[in-house]
Design goal:
There is one protein chain. By secondary structure, the protein is of the alpha/beta class. It folds into 3 domains: 4-340, Rossmann fold; 356-590, Rossmann fold, CATH 3.40.50; 601-724, Rossmann fold (3-Layer(aba) Sandwich), CATH 3.40.50.920. The chain is built from 25 helices and 20 strands. Strands 10-9-11-12-14-13-18 form a 7-stranded mixed sheet, sandwiched between helices. A 6-stranded parallel sheet has the order 2-1-3-4-8-7, with helices on both faces. Helix 2 crosses helix 12. The N and C termini lie far apart (73 Å).
Length: 725
């Protein structure tokens, strides 16, 4: 079925034969208008072709750029080495960027992406995204601007100097979004973070492009609202442009790009666009827009606007432009036919490969790496191995010192991590030792903390962001799920997010409670593909676990959530006065595979029952088996260490030796870690008698009432006795 916007091109060009536009000298060279038109027409016909191919089952989802093709002018103003994080109506930008890089075919690239072809240059057939490493276009799947915090972080990283030459030092980061997305809290937070940095004079070479078509799916943006909100962003320059004034737009974009490159200050370009052929897929906009309104928008077609400029300049005739338009259509359809049959992903392994690929040997080597001169790393005091037994917090602090001394690209960032040294002192002394450029206090916004880390990771840094409390993560969890974990998947491993997110969490914190400081749920982290989750419990293994987490991030590009039990930070004893929750810090020549992915640690050697646990559960279980010993029960406690991926092989190797297995789970009964552990046992056909004991399905209340819903030592004792009865 013919599209009205397509038919309108021929109709308008025919009218210009009899009544041509008045002669006007363009503000830019004619060849710039020609190049702009080429990109716009390619994008338009790719949208039209996708609809035709969807009708015959060769394309599975359409979300077009029609009406937004003016964004090609933004690409033309930038360099192909400027990193671009684009939203889904960026066909014009992609075509114009590809024209800057010889040997690149935007037509083939976009068709392959729409067809879910394994030859797609970025996702390998996993999603329809605009991306290409050769074009410095980082794929985004966001519809709600969740890529903007990453863009701010990348611009910040470039402004502060990248440790690796991922992009030229004078690069400009460009990120685009729609007017409806500009209202999302993620976008507002990113705008605020950019302004916050600019207010302090921090270099931030960032160009934000808000493409305003006046409607979000079916909801109209109030007239003047986008302009009003964007012009009030402190620290961010605002410039407006009209996509139907191509020569003015080209001149404006060129000047903006040059200004941002020179001043290193953030700018937002408010680009007026239209949206043709509905929102996406089978969206029937006639259900919420009148036919007259839709037809009136055709007068604001950016493709026709560029054609008009060329005719008005006397550079092209209407017939020449129609011939050019139809020639591009023919080329696009010829390429679509030539790309058939399409090679697509055919197995589960092919689909998940980017998020399951491992490099265990490289991880092991990296985990043993150390600074050339550790006396400089720890110059504020003795080497930690000479300091005597340490608490969990002291151990992690020493391991962070070693990490920053070993990896020059490592950066610690978060709320209160620098001057204060963290709420619990875990980052104490790091800023004094390594400087304010490597240990950074951020503004109090978790999505900015994580988004900044994601941007730094793209620039070659090894970020170690801190989330002050586990409950605070929920303000920003999509930065882990929707951004960090998906990047490798949707780029077929071409882009990765090497980062270790330290999260102070879990329950049992006394004297400072309530659910926002005692959050005992890990469910939001456990089911995210590609995200590793580690939980230290004891200072004897915590440093190794952190070193392996950093190595996993560095060598596999993996995001790791490192959840630190607050209640164990400063614990010294298992029972009063025994010093059992202290441990010596191992010197580098003794760094081994303790804490390596796939490994567990054990306590005790009893053969009657195996207690499988993690975090605070290790302390609870060890106390429980001392009580059970009075009953003659001999037990072994195994610390999982890794919640995701679960160390199934090591766990089963132990569990097969026992006739009774109890999973001790401090998280909630519903969605708790014990569900995955027991499932692994059942899947493996473990013949032991199995049970679990958990905390209640409740938030953690303030004060003594917390004991009523949290797992206790007595609960573990009672559950073990019941299992053995």
């Amino acid at each position: 079925m013919a599209e009205a916007i397509d038919e309108n091109v021929a109709t308008v060009l025919a009218g210009w034969r009899a009544d041509p536009p008045p002669r006007v000298e363009p503000l830019v060279a004619v060849d710039r208008l020609e190049a702009l038109l080429d990109a716009q027409v390619q994008s338009r016909h790719l949208d039209l072709a996708a609809r035709l191919l969807q009708a015959v089952g060769e394309v599975f989802y359409t979300i077009g750029s029609a009406g937004h093709e003016a964004n090609a002018a933004v690409a033309m103003a930038l360099r192909p080495t400027d990193p671009a994080l684009l939203h889904y109506r960026s066909g014009g930008f992609y075509a114009a960027r590809a024209a800057q890089v010889p040997g690149t075919s935007p037509v083939d690239d976009v068709l392959r992406g729409a067809m879910a072809s394994t030859d797609d240059p970025i996702s390998g057939g996993r999603h329809k995204v605009f991306g290409n490493r050769a074009l410095s276009i980082i794929p985004q799947t966001s519809t709600i601007a969740s890529h903007l915090p990453r863009a701010v972080g990348l611009a910040w990283g470039i402004g502060r100097g990248l440790p690796e030459p991922s992009w030229p030092s004078d690069s400009v980061v460009v990120a685009s979004l729609g007017d409806a997305s500009a209202n999302h809290s993620t976008a507002v937070g990113a705008f605020n973070a950019a302004g916050y940095l600019a207010h302090q004079g921090v270099p931030l070479p960032l160009l934000l492009v808000c493409e305003d078509n006046g409607i979000g799916i079916s909801t109209r943006t109030p007239q003047g609202w986008t302009e009003r909100s964007l012009t009030r962003l402190p620290g961010i320059r605002y410039v407006a442009a009209d996509g139907t004034r191509p020569d003015e737009l080209l001149a404006t974009c060129a000047q903006l790009a040059a200004d941002v490159r020179e001043t290193r200050r953030p700018t937002v370009l408010h680009l007026a666009t239209r949206r043709f052929m509905g929102h996406a897929g089978s969206d029937a906009e006639i259900a919420y827009r009148s036919r007259a309104e839709i037809a009136a928008d055709h007068a604001h077609d950016p493709v026709l606007a560029t054609m008009r400029a060329l005719v008005a300049a006397g550079a092209r005739t209407p017939d020449e432009l129609l011939e050019r338009y139809e020639a591009t259509r023919a080329h696009v359809m010829e390429r679509a036919e030539a790309l058939l049959p399409v090679s697509r992903l055919r197995s589960a392994f092919e689909v998940v490969r980017p998020v399951v690929a491992t490099r265990p040997d490289a991880v092991a080597r990296s985990a043993r790496a150390t600074a050339p001169d550790r006396s400089l790393v720890h110059r504020a005091g003795r080497l930690p191995e000479d300091a005597g037994p340490l608490t969990l917090a002291q151990t992690l602090n020493a391991a962070l010192h070693d990490a920053l001394g070993t990896y020059p690209q490592a950066v610690v960032l978060g709320e209160d991590v620098a001057r204060k040294g963290g709420v619990y002192g875990v980052t104490r002394g790091l800023r004094r030792q390594f400087g304010a450029s490597r240990v950074v206090d951020t503004l109090l916004d978790e999505q900015t903390v994580l988004g900044s880390a994601l941007g730094l990771a793209l620039g070659g840094h090894l970020p170690i962001p801190e989330i002050q409390y586990l409950a605070y993560l929920h303000n920003a969890e999509d930065q882990l799920r929707g951004e960090a974990a998906t990047l490798s998947f949707f780029s077929d491993g071409r882009y990765t997010n090497p980062m270790v997110v330290r999260i102070a969490g879990l329950a049992y914190q006394k004297g400072f409670g309530g659910h926002f400081h005692n959050d005992n749920s890990l469910a939001v982290l456990r089911d995210v593909p590609g995200l590793a989750v580690a939980v230290p419990s004891h200072p004897s293994t915590a440093a190794g676990l952190l070193r392996h987490s950093l190595a996993l991030a560095r060598e596999e590009g993996r995001p790791v959530a490192f959840v630190e039990p607050i209640a164990l930070y400063h614990r010294r004893d298992l029972v009063d006065g025994d010093g059992a929750w202290l441990a010596s810090y191992a010197p580098p020549d003794q760094w081994d595979d303790v804490g390596a992915p796939g490994t567990v640690s054990t306590w005790g050697d009893g053969g009657d029952v195996l207690l499988v646990t993690f975090g605070n559960g290790v302390a609870l279980s060890r106390q429980a088996i001392e009580r059970l010993a009075d009953d003659g029960v001999r037990a072994t406690v195994v610390d999982l260490q890794w919640i995701t991926p679960l160390p199934v092989a090591a766990l089963l190797d132990l569990a097969h030796r026992f006739s009774h297995v109890l999973v001790v789970d401090e998280t909630r009964r519903s969605g708790g870690v014990s569900e995955s552990v027991l499932t692994a046992f059942v899947d493996a056909g473990l013949e032991a008698r199995m049970a679990r004991v958990t905390s209640e399905d409740s938030f953690v209340p303030l004060g003594p009432a917390a004991a009523e819903v949290l797992l206790s030592v007595q609960d573990v004792v009672d559950a073990t006795r019941k299992l053995l009865a």
